[in-house]
Amino acid sequence: EVQLVESGGGLVKPGGSLRLSCAASGFTFSSYSMNWVRQAPGKGLEWVSSISSSSSYIYYADSVKGRFTISRDNAKNSLYLQMNSLRAEDTAVYYCARGRPGSGYYYEWGQGTLVTVSS
Amino acid sequence: EIVLTQSPATLSLSPGERATLSCRASQSVSSYLAWYQQKPGQAPRLLIYDASNRATGIPARFSGSGSGTDFTLTISSLEPEDFAVYYCQQRSNWPRGITFGQGTRLEIK
Fold first, then answer.
1. I need a labelling partner for B24 at 20 to 30 A (CA). Which of A17, A42, B64, B103 fits?
2. Distance CA B48, CA A105 (A)
């Protein structure tokens, strides 16, 4: 069974940093691209970032480009999101999501971790 | 950026009724469109991909149609567990520029 478990969320002041993690199990992590998708409280879904299976290709939404960094450690079956220069509008539940090879859809999701940016 | 507009914002129906949800794209996305269901406090669940293909384990009462700019999710006979928020998502410019619609809330009448 595919499992994705996010951690690292919490309360941070504007301008601060946070690092999210996603622990993956139940599949060959190194064979899949991985993604972060977020959802502001009471709002819709927003794609944040994607990374290919070998980290060769990385993409960001314009809203986070230059502030967020996605990475992965295939030996540890883990995905990360380093978030710097956080803003109030980054407040959201952050989901780790797995696609399928050649697909831009999200077949499996973690339960999410809440990031709150507030003074 | 491709904008997806979902309608209606809220749909009030009774169990057993047929639900029709719409998603319109600001430019053609071919058939590269998916539908997700999200219940309160849960992660989204993929229902339909490539406009009309049901994901694994999704009941046959869910069906998707459309291509280009106009898409429809139909639930043929609503079950109590179907009342949730539904999002469409396009992957036309994947791996960049993936966007979601703003959602349709399906509520019990």
1. A42
2. 10
Q: With a cut of 90, say whether residue A102 has pLDDT above it.
A: no
pLDDT in tens, B76-85: 999 999 999 9
- Mind telling me how many Å the CA of B43 is from chain A's nearest CA? 6
Q: Is B105 helix (H, G, I), strand (E, B) or coil?
A: strand
Q: What percent of chain A has pLDDT over 70?
A: 100
> What's the gap in Å between the CA of B17 and the closest CA on chain A?
26
For the beta carbon of residue B25, count every other beta carbon within 10 angstroms. Answer: 23
Q: How far apart are CA B61 and CA B80, in angstroms?
A: 13
Mean pLDDT of chain A: 96
Q: Rounded distance, CA A80 to CA A59, Å?
A: 14
A69 DSSP β-pair partners: A82
Give the pLDDT mean for A43-72: 96
Q: Which of B9, B86, B94, B93 is nearest to B48 (CA)?
A: B86
Torsion of CA B90, B92, B96, B99, to 10 degrees: -20
- Cross-chain residue pair B46–A95, CB shorter than 8 Å: no
DSSP annotation of B64 reads E
The tokens for B90 are 């396009």
B102 → closest Cβ in A33, A44, A107: A44
Sign of the CA dihedral B104, A101, A96, A19? negative
DSSP letter (8 states) at residue B55 = P
CA gap A47, B96 in Å, rounded = 9
Q: What is the mean pLDDT of chain B?
A: 97
